Each structure stands twice: as structure tokens, then as C-alpha cells.
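User: quick one - fold this with FE2/S2 (inorganic) cluster bound?
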Amino acid sequence: MVSSNDPGWNNGKDAGKDGVSRRSFMVTLGASAAAASLSQAAQAALPKGQDAQPESDVRGPGETSLTLNVNGQSRTIKAEPATTLLDALRQKMGLTGPKEICDRGACGGCSVIINGNLVASCMMLAADAEGAAITTIEGLSKDGALDPVQESFIRHDALQCGYCTPGFVMAGRALLDKKPKPTLAEIKKALSGNICRCGTYTNVFNAILEASGQPPVMDSAPGA
Ligand code: FES
Ligand code: FES
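Assistant: Sure. C-alpha cells for the protein plus FE2/S2 (inorganic) cluster:
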């Protein structure tokens, strides 16, 4: 996933420098980009010389229908083109597992899995997720049974306030789906986009090691 350490990533520090916040930029960009791409598609489908009628085809700037495949269910919502996936999940679908903490791709609290990849949902437009398989932490348990990563977090007491925990669990799940037996170094790297202000990293790493069938290798507390 994108992290604030990625040199190619704007972490939002310059927001407001020119009087334009990330949010207002997204609102403008989302509406105009969606309008532009739909307008181009409509134009391309017409015989040469005939203008498209973009008004009826353009998405936004107001709310339009959006269908997302979330946790194996197809759900249709009304949302503006600039609605982030995180806002669509939390505010339109009531899926509050993904947390809004930094809202700029720097903490991993909003992590979801899209087509097998870990994604910061605060940094993706909901419209761009149409057609993809989205999994939130609400979708990890099966038939009432928690995911092994969730079970392991409980066993290792890998949380304090718990606010960052859904993001860490999703990062762990995404990693184990790709690499069932990661090394400690690989776990640390995979979770490097997630921040825990309570400092539960040791137990988080141990929880993921154990969920992968490997013994914990770090002491859970000084002297333990
Ligand atoms: S990375 Fe999305 S809320 Fe922090
Ligand atoms: S458990 Fe509190 S921020 Fe991680």
C-alpha cells in the first residue's frame, strides 16, 4: 500500500498552501475527471461529426448510483463522484470497521483488501472501485468464526485502544494470502504503512507469526 515514506506520494503536507485542501481538490478533480472520461467515451461511440449529449451521461457533480461488490455482496448506493471508498463504506453502507484516522494515506487505519491487494480506502474514489472485489474487516469472519488473524490478535493481546487494529488485521490477512509463511522482516515490511499510536507492534508481529503457523520470536514485554 502507499505509505507516507513513498517519495512519489503527496502526504497532504502542502494542503492549503495555495488555498486548496486535498478534500476540495478531490471534489473538483473527481467531478471533472469523471465527467471528462464519460464524455470522451460517449463521443467516441458516435459517428464522426456528431456531438455527444454529455449532460445526461455525465456522472455528477451531484449524487449518482454506484454499485460496489463488498464482502461478497453487490450493493448500490447514491454518492457524489468525489466520494472516497472509505466514506462510501462507512457513511453509505454502515461498514465502520475501516477507520478514518489520517484521511491521507499515512496510517493504514482505513485498509481494505481489493482484488487481493491492501488498499488505503481513504485514498481511492468509490467510483474507481466499481467492479472490484472489496473486503473489509466485517467480511473476514466466516459462518460466525473469526479469521485466524483475528483469533491470533486476541490471543496475543495485540491491541490497546483498538483503533488501528482493523487496519493491522487487514494488512496481516493480505500478507498471509500472498505469503502463507512470511519472515519477521517480511511482516514488518508488509505492515510498514500501518501506525499504532499505542505501540502494540511487538504483539502484532507475534500475532501474525502465530497465525502463519510459526512461533512468536519477539518478547512481548521487557523481561518476559
Ligand atoms: S491511511 Fe486512510 S485513514 Fe489513514
Ligand atoms: S491499539 Fe491504539 S492505536 Fe493501535
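One thing worth noting: The first strand starts at residue 64 and ends at 70.
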